[in-house]
Amino acid sequence: MRRTTGTYRSRAVALAAIAALGAGLLSGCADDGDSDTNKSGGGGEGGSGKTKIIMGLFGTMGFKEAGLYDEYMKLHPDIKIEQTVIERNENYYPQLLNHLSTGSGLADVQGIEVANIAEVVQTQADKFVDLSKTEGVKKENWLDWKWPQGVTKDGKAIGLATDIGPMAICYRKDLFQKAGLPTDREKVAQLWAGDWNKYLAAGEKYMKKAPSGTAFVDSAGGVFNAVVAGNAERYYNKSGKIIYKDSPAVKNAWEVATKAATGKMTAKLQQFQKTWDQGYANGQFATVSCPPWMLGYIQEKAGDKAKDQWDVAAAPKPGNWGGTFLGVPQAGKNKEEAAKLVAWLTAPEQQAKLFKERGSWPSAQASYSLPDVKDAKHPYFANAPIGSIFAEAAKGIPVQVLGPKDQIINQNLVDIGILQVDQQGKSPEAGWKAATKTIDNALDQ
C-alpha cells in the first residue's frame, strides 16, 4: 500500500515506535489493531446499566495505552469506554465520510486528522456537535493558532485538538564534531536561527568535512515539509482559493529543498521507507527535522549504539507537523456523555499525561506550565530539555490556513516533484512541472 506524505503514515508509525520503548517518557505498549468492540458504533448500553461510549480512531492515539480511559471510568462508574481503531488514516477517513453521509455506522467520538480537518469543518460541520458549548471547554486553553482549525466561521467547534507536532532539528553530535561544527545544542541552534538558508549554509560547511558515507540531511522532502510548515498561507489563501503555484511559502520551501538536493547535502532517502530506517541505523545523515512524536521513532531505528549521540536543537523557524482532533457526530446515541469525555480527554491535565506516557505534544498551551511538560527531558537525546524546546516552538507557529486538498497538493509536491530532483537528478524546473501536472489532474484543473 502506498505511503502518504505528511502525518497519516508517520504519526501512526512513530507513536507505535514510542509505545514500544520503555525509557523515560516513552512507556506503554502499542495496540494499533484494537478491535475489542462492536464496530457498528453508536453507543448503547455497555452492560450492568452502564452507558457505553465508543471511540472511533485511527493509528495509535494512545488514550487507552496511557490509562486515560481507565481513569475516566473510575471517575464515572456509569460509563464504559471502548474503541475501534483503523491503523491507517487513508483507510479510516473515506469510511468516516461515508458514515457521515449516511448517518449510520458512526462511533460516539470520531478522530479527525489535521490534514482533513479543513474539509470536515467546511463540508461536514452540520454533522457534528458544537463542542464549544460543552462544560469545561475553554478556548483559551488551546494555542491561539490551534483552536481556530476545528472551528467554523460562525464559531462552532466541531473538533477539539489533542496533539500537535512543533518541529525542532534532531542532529548527530558525533558527526557534527567530525565535520568541525559545534555540538552544543544552543550553539547549533544559533547556526541557523531565523533562516532556513542558514541551515543550508551549515550543510555546506558540514559537507566540506563530512565523515565518509554521510550527508547533512536525510531527504529533500523532509526539508520541504519543515520549511513550508512554518507559514500561514501555503496551498490556500484566506479566501479559500488554491494558490500553491504562486505561494511565496511554497516557492521558498521548494527553493530551499531543491538547493539541498542539487547541492548534494541529502542522503537521497524517502521518509518512512525501509531505506530511511536503515539510514538511522547506519548513521547516514546528521540532521532531520523532528516533531516530538518522531523522537521515539529515531530512538528505535538508530538503536542503543546512537544513544547520547543524537541531540535536539531549535529549528530555524517554528513549524507544525502533525495533530489530531476529536469530534462528536450528531448521529451518535450518547452525544452529551461523548462530549463530556472529549472535553476531559483534551483538557490540559490529560494532554500532559498523554505526553508523559506517549510522547504526544499537547495542543493545550495550559499544559506547558505543568511539570510533566515543562520539566521534560529525553534521556536518549543527551537529556535534551524537550519540554522547553518544543513549548517555545509551539508558541511561535503561525495561524495556518488549511484547505480541503492540502494533503493531495503536499503529497505530490514531495513524492513526485522533490523526489525526482533528489533521487533522479532531475532539474528543479522539471520536478516542479511534473508535480504541478499531477496535482492539476488530481484536482481536475
Overview of the molecule:
Residues 1-30 form the signal peptide. InterPro entries: Bact_solute-bd_prot1, SBP. Pfam families: SBP_bac_8. Residues 1-13, 15-24 and 26-44 have low confidence and may be disordered. The two termini are 27 Å apart. Helix 8 (220-228) packs antiparallel against helix 9 (248-262). This protein is an alpha/beta fold and 445 residues long. The protein has a 6-stranded mixed beta sheet, with helices on both faces. A 4-stranded mixed beta sheet has the order 6-7-5-8. The protein contains 17 helices and 10 strands.
Low-confidence segments, ≥5 residues, pLDDT <50?
1-13, 15-24, 26-44
Taken in chain order, the helices and strands follow as: HEHEHEHEEHHHEHHHEHEEHHEHHHH
Task: State Rg.
Answer: 21 Å
Name given to the CATH architecture of the largest domain: 3-Layer(aba) Sandwich
Number of helices: 17
Q: If strands are numbered along the chain, what order do they take across the biggest sheet?
A: 2-1-3-9-4-10
Distance between the termini: 27 Å
Shape, principal axes of CA atoms: globular
| Structural domains: how many | 2
CATH fold group of the largest domain: D-Maltodextrin-Binding Protein, domain 2
Mean pLDDT across all amino acids: 90
Q: Helices, strands, pairings?
A:
Blueprint: H1 7-19, E1 51-58, H2 68-75, E2 79-86, H3 89-102, E3 109-113, H4 114-123, E4 160-166, E5 168-172, H5 173-178, H6 185-192, H7 196-208, E6 215-217, H8 220-228, H9 248-262, H10 274-282, E7 285-290, H11 293-302, E8 310-314, E9 320-327, H12 335-345, H13 348-358, E10 361-362, H14 371-374, H15 386-395, H16 406-424, H17 428-442
Parallel strand pairs: 1-2, 1-3, 6-7
Antiparallel strand pairs: 3-9, 4-9, 4-10, 5-7, 5-8
Helix pairs in contact: 1-11, 8-9, 8-16, 9-16, 16-17
